[in-house]
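Sequence, please.
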């Protein structure tokens, strides 16, 4: 290769390298403003926003809201602003109007305990509030708080008609009931950042009108007790219901409406597929089931026969003692008492 061609080749390489460097600088320069714009944070105070969709009746908890930076020009007087409001005082309040995820929480959207219509706002559409008595044992030792979900267990003793041993039973009659209040408080009391556990004497539950009637009857049938549910149970049951087709999400729903629909299904009480145990399931000396009608009739017949024999023996002994004889005499039909000296006897007489 001669010197002239070598010089041309080196010149071409220099031009190519320069072009590549110029193009790279252009691309980097164009991307830098975008990255800078993406990292910009709104300059303004922090306002209280919803961490997830909050439908009507939701009880505000510490994980449902938080403070977030918000543009200063978009601040409104109804917002809860960090430094001017205490989030701890909002815990236990109830959502009056639906709030979407990321939306600022306004003062008119929450109802505080003690305000007029608070409990009515806490109820979902078509739901009712019922109160049942509890004790330290039946109320999970005070570890049930507003917003928790519980199962309702009925314990009773069924007395058979044959007069035999009673059948002791415990039955889960309703599952996934939402707790609205304990005693007359709808909020969780805290002290030094820790939840105060108190034994309640009453618990108010959210139910449907039909379940309200069912609980009223169950309260008179036997003893009611509560069983605290895990937070994961309701979601797992909902997933199974959706997978099996028992809960069908309507087509054409937006993501927000679908979340609201599933949230309502998640909090829905269930009174089907109840489970139960009897005394025979826990002790071999207890009944497992009620006796059949044939067995009951046989036991009643035997009891009546034994009663008749006992009555005959008693009458015979009375007659024998009066007649001075040890023989057992059982008379039928009309009798008269005949006294001869100091001895009185009973004599049968014929019918007229």
């Amino acid at each position: 290769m001669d010197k002239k061609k070598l010089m041309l080749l080196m010149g071409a390489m220099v031009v190519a390298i320069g072009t590549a460097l110029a193009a790279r600088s252009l691309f980097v320069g164009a991307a830098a403003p975008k990255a800078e714009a993406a990292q910009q944070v709104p300059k303004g105070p922090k306002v209280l926003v919803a961490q997830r969709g909050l439908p009507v009746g939701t009880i505000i908890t510490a994980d449902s809201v938080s403070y977030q930076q918000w543009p200063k020009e978009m601040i409104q007087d109804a917002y809860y602003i960090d430094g001017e409001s205490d989030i701890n005082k909002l815990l236990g309040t109830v959502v009056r109007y639906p709030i979407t995820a990321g939306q600022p929480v306004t003062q008119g959207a929450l109802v505080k305990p003690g305000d007029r219509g608070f409990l009515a706002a806490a109820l979902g559409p078509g739901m009712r509030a019922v109160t049942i008595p509890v004790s330290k044992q039946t109320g999970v030792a005070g570890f049930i708080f507003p917003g928790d979900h519980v199962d309702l267990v009925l314990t009773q003793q069924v007395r058979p008609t044959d007069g035999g041993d009673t059948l002791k039973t415990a039955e889960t009659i309703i599952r996934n009931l939402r707790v609205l209040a304990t005693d007359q408080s709808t909020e969780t009391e805290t002290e030094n950042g820790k939840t105060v556990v108190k034994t309640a004497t009453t618990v108010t539950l959210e139910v449907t009108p039909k379940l309200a009637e069912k609980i009223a009857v169950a309260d008179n049938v036997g003893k009611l007790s509560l069983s605290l549910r895990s937070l994961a149970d309701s979601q797992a049951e909902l997933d199974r219901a959706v997978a099996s087709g028992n809960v069908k999400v309507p087509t054409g729903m937006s993501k927000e409406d679908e979340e609201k629909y599933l949230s309502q299904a998640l909090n829905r009480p269930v009174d089907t597929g109840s489970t139960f145990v009897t005394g025979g399931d826990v002790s071999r000396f207890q009944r497992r089931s009620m006796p059949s009608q044939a067995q009951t009739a046989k036991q009643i017949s035997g009891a009546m026969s034994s009663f008749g024999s006992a009555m005959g023996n008693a009458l015979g002994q009375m007659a024998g003692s009066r007649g001075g004889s040890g023989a057992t005499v059982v008379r039928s039909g009309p009798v008269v008492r005949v006294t001869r000296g100091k001895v009185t006897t009973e004599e049968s007489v014929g019918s007229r």
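The helical segments are 3-38, 118-122, 209-221, 231-244, 255-266, 279-282, 293-323.
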